[in-house]
Amino acid sequence: MSEPYDPTKSQLMGPRPSVLSLNINSKSALYAAYMSHLKRGGIFIPTTRPYAIGDEVFMLLTLMDEPGKMPIAGQVVWVTPAGAQGNKTQGIGVQFSDDESGQTAKRKIEQLLGAHLGSTRPTHTL
């Protein structure tokens, strides 16, 4: 017998990516969340939901005064668990996909951060 239809799973492609929404309202919050050390760029998303390295996610990112949300696909490359050393915020680091939306997000964030990219201030991940 075949399994019943599950709308949360594509019958051909496996589970659907999780959808996350992130609003960043200041340059300091953007600096703390941006993962510049990743080749394609990425962002830290505070969350208490459990994720594993390699999980695919889809995010709707709003940056400061920018109109609208940027839809970006990505993959979990960092997990900060609850109670992490140094009181780090629980959440996940998501590397942007290598498509146009990921490249646009990286460019836009780096443009907004400008000279702050070279700062040695701590971030959510480093």
Give a concise summary.
Helix content is 17%, strand content 33%. By secondary structure, it is α+β, with helices and mostly antiparallel strands. Residues 5-12 have low confidence and may be disordered.
3D structure, described in words:
This protein is of the alpha+beta class and 126 residues long. Helix content is 17%, strand content 33%. It has a 5-stranded mixed beta sheet. A two-stranded antiparallel sheet has the order 1-2. A hairpin with a 6-residue loop joins β5 (56-63) and β6 (70-80). The radius of gyration is 16 Å and the shape is globular. The termini are far apart.
Topology diagram in text:
Elements: E1 9-10, E2 14-15, E3 18-24, H1 27-33, E4 42-46, E5 56-63, E6 70-80, E7 91-96, H2 100-113
Descriptive terms for the model:
5-stranded mixed β-sheet; two-stranded antiparallel sheet; 126 residues; alpha+beta; single chain
Strand content is 25-35%
Total beta-strand segments: 7
SS summary, helix count: 2
Shape: globular
Distance between the termini: 50 Å
Radius of gyration from the CA trace?
16 Å
Q: What's the pLDDT, averaged over the residues? A: 85
Q: Which class best fits the helix and strand makeup? A: alpha+beta
- With strands numbered from the N-terminus, the spatial order across the biggest sheet is 3-5-6-7-4
Domain PilZ: 20-113
Protein name: PilZ domain-containing protein
InterPro entries: PilZ_domain
GO molecular function: cyclic-di-GMP binding
